[in-house]
Amino acid sequence: MSQEPDEHARVRAVLVNEAHAFESLVRDYQKLCWHIVFRMVGNPDDARDLCQETFLRVHRQLHQFRFECPLKSWIGRVAYSIALRHLERRRAAPVTYLDDEGESSIESLTDESLDLEEAAGDEQQAVLLLQAVEALPPVPRTLVTLYHLEELSIPEIASITDMSEGTIKSHLFRARLSLRDWLQRRGVVAP
Amino acid sequence: MRTPDRSAAIAKALALQADGLPKDFPAQVAALAEARASARYLSLNDLALLGAFVLMIGVCVAGWLLFDSPEPGGVEWFAPIVRAVTSQPWLVLGVAGVAVVQMLTFRRRATL
């Protein structure tokens, strides 16, 4: 995977305790961290605490970062594992869709020509679409956020979540189906 | 399996929701991380201090034994301890090692 050219310098600056180096790192990655953690746990108070825990762990373990993946993915992985552990501790299983249905059949079910694009025409419809995303289970809604909002690539998401690329794609196809169903039931998009 | 298309509609809907972190979150976290790192550094200092203390006691005891007290019976009470230590040095070192490890583990648990 490609690395940002200044990533080594940036990590070194944090490790030697250069003024504001860590603060600037937090500023650049806090949005990613929030998107992962908040979508996973769904509670803003918990998400704030977990974001803090994520960056404290990043600070403590940064010397172990070996530049084998981009720093963004590494921080994302820390955030994802902390959120996942939080859900497990609360015995809230990070529900996914995957059942016995094959991945290829899911893909064939998802006709993207029947698109959601019409569902965000105005602000009110966009709010409904946001509610539909929030109604998804934790893992799919996190994947949807990383893919559509953060615009991470499938390999980057795979690196963060430790899932296979096929599983991620399958989740994304299914999430899209669920969103469309949810909106169709409320008459936002035509069946 | 093909790669799903990105949806501008989903991105737009998700972007409606601002992140819930306070404005000074980076500064807060950086200060907290700094404080925790200092605490870890302090515990290393504590260890160094303990080492120096043990060394100092060791030098005193060695000096005492080497130069001895001119008064008869001055170190008699100390002799059984010295004999025990010198007859089983590895046992004493082992016990001391376990004690140090236990103390450090306790400190680590207490500071987590």
Which structural traits does this protein have?
A: 191 residues; mainly alpha; 0% strand; elongated; B: 112 residues
Largest sheet of chain B: none
Number of helices of chain B: 4
Rg calculated over all Cα atoms of chain B: 30 Å
Give the termini separation of chain A.
Answer: 41 Å
Supply the number of helical segments of chain A. Answer: 9
Low-pLDDT stretches of chain A: 98-104
Q: What spatial form of chain A do the alpha-carbon principal axes imply?
A: elongated
Number of distinct beta strands of chain B? 0
- The quaternary organization reads as heterodimer
Which geometry of chain B do the CA atoms define? elongated
Number of strands of chain A: 0
Polypeptide structure, described:
The complex is a heterodimer of chains A (191) and B (112). Chain A is built from 9 helices and no strands. Chain A is mainly α and 191 residues long. In chain A, 39% of the residues are buried. Mean pLDDT of chain A is 85; it is low at 98-104. Chain B is elongated, with a radius of gyration of 30 Å. The two termini of chain B are 45 Å apart. Classes of the chains: A mainly alpha (191), B mainly alpha (112).
Can you lay out the helices and strands and say which pair or pack?
The complex is a heterodimer of chains A (191) and B (112).
Chain A lengths: L6 H9 L5 H21 L2 H18 L9 H19 L13 H7 L13 H12 L3 H12 L4 H8 L3 H21 L6
Chain B lengths: L7 H8 L9 H43 L11 H9 L1 H23 L1
